[in-house]
Specification:
Belongs to the FKBP-type PPIase family. It catalyses: [protein]-peptidylproline (omega=180) = [protein]-peptidylproline (omega=0). The protein contains 2 helices and 12 strands; from the N terminus they run ββββαββββββαββ. It is mainly beta. The strands form 2 sheets. Strands 1, 2, 3, 4, 5 and 6 form a 6-stranded antiparallel beta sheet that branches. It is elongated. The N terminus is likely disordered.
């Protein structure tokens, strides 16, 4: 936790905050090299062009990124093509799918949005797909898909089958002050500045296009055997994280939204870009 939330970003933490570990006794996680985001059109469509807020129908196939392959496509992780029918329609650009899918279909300058009939290959770093999260193989698994490990970059082939025009989504601007929402009010000891606390947490980048405002997940210690410990107000964590926990009672669960000036500022940290607003869900385990 101490290195995870250190206000001055450690130079070694270049891939994701999980690579920073949770303190001196926690082994450093393996850093997974991340490719650059890249879009390549293999077929340029001639039909309706997709825009944010449109309902789209696509075919897709996803692979683990493999730098040793000429096309960078490793083992297959999922595919609508294998099922013989397109994926379930979804509204593009509103956070109903991972960020990398939205950006692949809508394009990022100088690459334009896809048109119906078009086919596009996207190389997606982990921060644009599942981040630090993992995904097991489906059960049953008739097509032999492999699991997606933490911080895995992926490659996707997309085909835009249909577009139903919609409206531009509403974007909720990030707050400029620290926000705290108690989802569960604890009944134990109350945390104050100077207390040593242990917490379980999950962190996401803020995304104003999503209903829950949670963009890519950048870290979580929920699966760790021992929750992280740090001292409130000591500088062991970014100011917003420490200040967001003050006032919680043991057993409580709180959503904390942290503006950039109380997080990593313009410099960013690892997979967290500069001037990013962060969202944490925190459970307070102990107070000493």
């Amino acid at each position: 936790m101490k290195s995870m939330f250190q206000y001055i970003a450690a130079v070694a933490c270049v891939a994701a905050l999980t690579a920073c570990g949770g303190g001196a006794k926690t082994p450093t996680a393996v850093v997974v090299p991340q490719p650059a985001f890249q879009l390549t059109d293999t077929v340029v469509g001639t039909g309706t062009q997709a825009a944010a807020g449109d309902l789209v129908v696509i075919n897709f196939t996803g692979y683990l990124y493999d730098s040793t392959k000429p096309n960078f496509k490793g083992d297959k992780v999922e595919s609508s093509v294998d099922t013989g029918k397109p994926a379930t329609p979804f509204t593009v650009g509103v956070g109903s799918v991972v960020t990398g899918w939205d950006q692949s279909i809508l394009g990022v300058a100088p690459v334009a949005a896809m048109k119906v009939g078009g086919k596009r290959t996207a190389i997606l770093p982990a921060s644009l797909v599942y981040g630090a999260a993992t995904r097991d193989v489906p059960n049953p698994n008739p097509y032999g898909y492999v699991a997606i490990k933490a911080n895995s970059p992926l490659v996707y082939d997309f085909e835009l089958v249909n577009v139903v025009k919609g409206t531009v989504p509403v974007v909720v601007p990030p707050p400029t002050t620290l926000q705290k929402i108690d989802n569960v009010v604890g009944t134990g000891a109350v945390a104050a500045s100077g207390n040593s606390v242990t917490v379980r947490y999950t962190g996401w980048l803020y995304d104003g296009t999503r209903t829950d405002l949670k963009g890519p997940q950048f870290d979580s210690n929920v699966a760790k055997a021992n929750p992280d410990k740090f001292v409130l107000g000591s500088g062991d964590s970014i100011p917003g994280f420490s200040n967001g926990i003050i006032g919680m009672a043991v057993g409580g669960k709180r959503t904390i939204t942290i503006p950039p000036d109380q997080a990593y500022g313009a410099a960013g940290n690892g997979s967290i870009p500069g001037n990013a607003t962060l969202i944490f869900e925190v459970t307070l385990v102990t107070v000493n």
